[in-house]
Design brief:
This protein has four helices and no strands. By secondary structure, it is mainly alpha-helical. Helix 1 packs antiparallel against helix 4.
Length: about 110
């Protein structure tokens, strides 16, 4: 769950960083600073996924990612896609961790 979540957050940060490069000529400095701050926070949030609060912060960051759609309208769609990836990372990650715990428990009983 941690690895998948971190991968989604880092990819979001990179996509937003490239979008900021595209928006430099046609948007205000405030919008670019907002995008830069959100991109940096997405990247830093990937490191907080060791704790449960990291996932709450990551979920909150998804709202800020979608809100960048007010600067570049395509980010409404891109944000929704990343929200779906974030949800999938949490769901698949939980299943993977449960399967791993079952295998470890099974190996522990055989030894």
């Amino acid at each position: 769950m941690k690895v998948l979540g971190a991968a989604v957050l880092v990819m979001e940060s990179m996509v937003l960083g490239f979008a900021i490069l595209l928006a430099t000529k046609s948007h205000s400095a405030t919008a670019l600073i907002y995008g830069s701050v959100v991109s940096l926070l997405l990247f830093l949030t990937a490191g907080t996924l060791k704790r449960r609060t990291g996932f709450y912060i990551g979920s909150l960051m998804q709202i800020f990612m979608i809100s960048f759609g007010f600067v570049i309208p395509a980010f409404f769609l891109i944000g929704v896609i990343f929200v779906a990836l974030w949800a999938a990372a949490i769901i698949v990650g939980r299943k993977g961790e449960a399967a791993r715990a079952a295998l470890v428990a099974q190996a522990g009983t055989k030894a």
